[in-house]
UniProtKB/TrEMBL annotation:
<dbReference type="InterPro" id="IPR012759">
    <property type="entry name" value="RNA_pol_sigma_RpoH_proteobac"/>
</dbReference>
<comment type="subunit">
    <text>Interacts with the RNA polymerase core enzyme.</text>
</comment>
<dbReference type="InterPro" id="IPR050813">
    <property type="entry name" value="Sigma-70_Factor"/>
</dbReference>
<feature type="DNA-binding region" description="H-T-H motif">
    <location>
        <begin position="252"/>
        <end position="271"/>
    </location>
</feature>
<dbReference type="InterPro" id="IPR000943">
    <property type="entry name" value="RNA_pol_sigma70"/>
</dbReference>
<keyword id="KW-0238">DNA-binding</keyword>
<comment type="similarity">
    <text>Belongs to the sigma-70 factor family. RpoH subfamily.</text>
</comment>
<keyword id="KW-0804">Transcription</keyword>
<keyword id="KW-0175">Coiled coil</keyword>
<keyword id="KW-0963">Cytoplasm</keyword>
<dbReference type="GO" id="GO:0006352">
    <property type="term" value="P:DNA-templated transcription initiation"/>
</dbReference>
<dbReference type="GO" id="GO:0005737">
    <property type="term" value="C:cytoplasm"/>
</dbReference>
<dbReference type="Pfam" id="PF04545">
    <property type="entry name" value="Sigma70_r4"/>
</dbReference>
<dbReference type="InterPro" id="IPR007627">
    <property type="entry name" value="RNA_pol_sigma70_r2"/>
</dbReference>
<feature type="coiled-coil region">
    <location>
        <begin position="215"/>
        <end position="272"/>
    </location>
</feature>
<keyword id="KW-0731">Sigma factor</keyword>
<keyword id="KW-0346">Stress response</keyword>
Amino acid sequence: MALAILNLAPEGNLSRYLQDIRKFPMLTAEEELSLSKAWRDQTDHESAHKLVTSHLRLVAKIAMGYRGYGLPVGELISEGNVGMMQAVKRFDPDRGFRLATYAMWWIRAAIQEYILHSWSLVKMGTTAAQKKLFFNLRRLKGQMQAIEDGDLRPEHVTEIARVLAVPEQDVVNMNRRLSAPDHSLNAPVRADSEGEWQDWLVDDNDSQEEMLAEHEEMSDRKALLANALKTLNERERHILIERRLKDEATTLEDLSQRYRISRERVRQIEVRAFEKLQKSMKTQITDRRQQITKDAEVARIAA
């Protein structure tokens, strides 16, 4: 359903708009029922237009209740008008209640959805509980006279969490979000300075070069260990892995029962296997260094 209602500019023509919508007459219950059936049964756009325009004052009244979120009232009314049209489109007159009762839910839903998407660059209010907290926190703070800046008192957090049935940490986080609107990282630190806030951001993570070097070093170590383990026989390899390479080492007692030898013999095999492992890895490292030196010398001569 596409309706040309009124041209509502974001702010400039708001006063005139509020005056103009008073010209549309209120509908009696009988008139509303007749128009609703004409739209539903015959898709009469003129009837739908009258239903919408007769409720524009309701949209404006509801939108005014959301002025505290810092968004242009004209835009809130525009979104509410979209909700009003959706309500007319889906209204069933045979259910026995007035259109205003049904439409107010669509109007509020449209306005609230717009606020959630426009209030912050960071997405917020993704669950029903978070949306309820977002739209009721300011009202509850006013009732508790807790409108001062900064974090809420613990007793206020507890009470709000109880009333809205949300975790206390959600209350704390939402209050901080509402108290600290978005700021651009490209904004200057001071009015007389060219430096921007983003210049002060420090990434504590390793650089890509450091991460790559660490990954390659870890891969080399794993390759050296895998080759060194191949120099051990099956029993030595198993005992060494169980005793040295597991998060929770297997006890000497368990290994002695498995191999039917004494715990001291298991310990001796472990020590010998570890020494063989170290020797093999050192040999691999020495061979690799010698190969690198040889390759460098060949490259130097070729150059």
